[in-house]
Amino acid sequence: MPEEDFVELKFRLYDGTDIGPFRYSPASTVAVLKERIVAEWPKDKKNAPKGANDIKLINAGKILENSKTVGQCKAPFGDLQNGVITMHVVVQPSLAKAKTGNLCAITTLQLLC
């Protein structure tokens, strides 16, 4: 695969720090990106994901699906050819963990809806 076909990505965390940049094939899936984020997660961060399912990746305002490829998720950026694309990382614990957490908050949320 020619060098120019690879996509360079970095991942912005909740506190403004970045993981990466790394180069990916356009055929790489979002699930692969999430596994890399979990593996590279800084050890000094509090809200560390336990696994790839605890991560949501956002690019161009859209939450990316695990089965999509980098090529499918890459938004057209016009003059930004060969630039680094920043994807935002949101750590969201699995639903089972959230249900066992603060039941009062869940009840309050349901009442407001």
UniProtKB/TrEMBL annotation:
Subcellular location: Cell membrane
Keywords, alphabetical: Cell membrane, Lipoprotein, Membrane, Methylation, Palmitate, Prenylation
Any single Gene Ontology cellular-component annotation: plasma membrane
Superkingdom of this protein's organism: Eukaryota
Tagged with keyword Lipoprotein: yes
InterPro entries: MUB, Ubiquitin-like_dom, Ubiquitin-like_domsf, UBL3-like, UBL3-like_ubiquitin_dom
Predominant subcellular localization, coarse grouping: membrane
Keyword Cell membrane on entry: yes
Residues covered by the Ubiquitin-like domain: 7-73
Record's bilayer topology term: Lipid-anchor
Residue stretches spanning the membrane: none
Pfam family of the protein (one): Rad60-SLD_2
Function according to Swiss-Prot or TrEMBL: May serve as docking site to facilitate the association of other proteins to the plasma membrane.
Family matches, as PANTHER family: MEMBRANE-ANCHORED UBIQUITIN-FOLD PROTEIN 4 (PTHR13169:SF1), UBIQUITIN-LIKE PROTEIN 3 HCG-1 PROTEIN (PTHR13169)
Protein's UniProt name: Membrane-anchored ubiquitin-fold protein
Species: Linum tenue
Native organism taxonomy: Eukaryota, Viridiplantae, Streptophyta, Embryophyta, Tracheophyta
